[in-house]
Design brief:
three-stranded antiparallel sheet, 14 strands, seven-stranded antiparallel sheet, alpha+beta
Amino acid sequence: KSLKLDPQNYEEAALQEKLHLLPFDEDFFSKVFVGISKRTSHHLFGLYEQEEPFTFITEILERILSSDRFYILQSEKGFEDVTSYPFKDTYQVYASPSLALETFVKEKDAKDRMKSKTSDLTKLLNNNLQRVRKKVELLEKSMDDAKDKESYKIMGEILSANVYALKDGMGEAVLLNYYTDEEIRIKLNPSKSISQNIDHYYSKYNKKKRAEVMAKGQQILAMEEEDYLVSILLSLDNLENQEEIEEIRKELMVAGYLRFKKSGTKKEKNSKPLHYKSSEGIDLYVGKNNTQNDYLTTKFANRHDTWLHTKNIPGSHVIIRSDDFNNETLLEAANLAAYFSKASTSTKVPVDYTLVKNVKKPSGAKPGMVIYSTNKTLYVDPAPPRIKRQE
């Protein structure tokens, strides 16, 4: 087994040998050099632009090792890694590794504490998601079982049309299917009359039809519930304080997933949505949970502001707080909608947008659930926001 190379002191011939033996891929740096993790190896390989591998490796290692700055790579969802090279567009710079690590650990600790405080909610939501998805599977099976319902109706009709040519006690009937002009063989129960056999086929058809209609209705409700539960799970990733946790608990109580608890006399504070400024200085607002989504769309926004949301995908409501903005602002808002959605790691995510006046909340709808019309759609590849978040 060959030893790994020291990135600060290695023979060029040894590196050439490694390149000959191993594929130059995203794991190369972690396999070949000591002290380089898989994550860092992936970051390094992401900088590769098809030049000669040996030259790229030596130059990038020299740049990193000679750097006197340290970086915390970040996204809107938190700190991602501590490095000595700015592998991403969004980062914070530090003069020493100890300061960078201290800041990183402090942020991670806060995230872990938040995750610990919501672990019961995560378990509750995942259990209900499992239940709903199992229900959707059963409903789909029920609808699949009903696909042949028309064949029972046709057999009942053909038997009815030939009733005078049939006799009680027959085990089957071979008749002309006037829909296809071909013969059809229809099984009969010889212990029942022809009239009873006809009723059997019509009854089978009606039973399957009723089951299909009922299953379709229940499937719509189940899929709406699935989207709702996913939207709350997504909002758990955006939590920043205790007030936001309590908002979600209260919402789950109202929705019937948690038992109501007596609240104290202390007045509850409402949490604030995310606030950004677009490149041209327009205010953009993003709901971090369903309570904020409802507030932004139904109370905060003006009728002629623009509302955005991922098409048929759980995510945040986004408001462009203006009736006059350029296309860059629209794209920046659409990126926020896609980034703060279930499709944040996908590509070509469809984002609907329309004026707030075209967005309605149906009576009795769950928090965050709305309907809208006269919308347009654009497609974006979600990325961490380049625009600055406002305090």
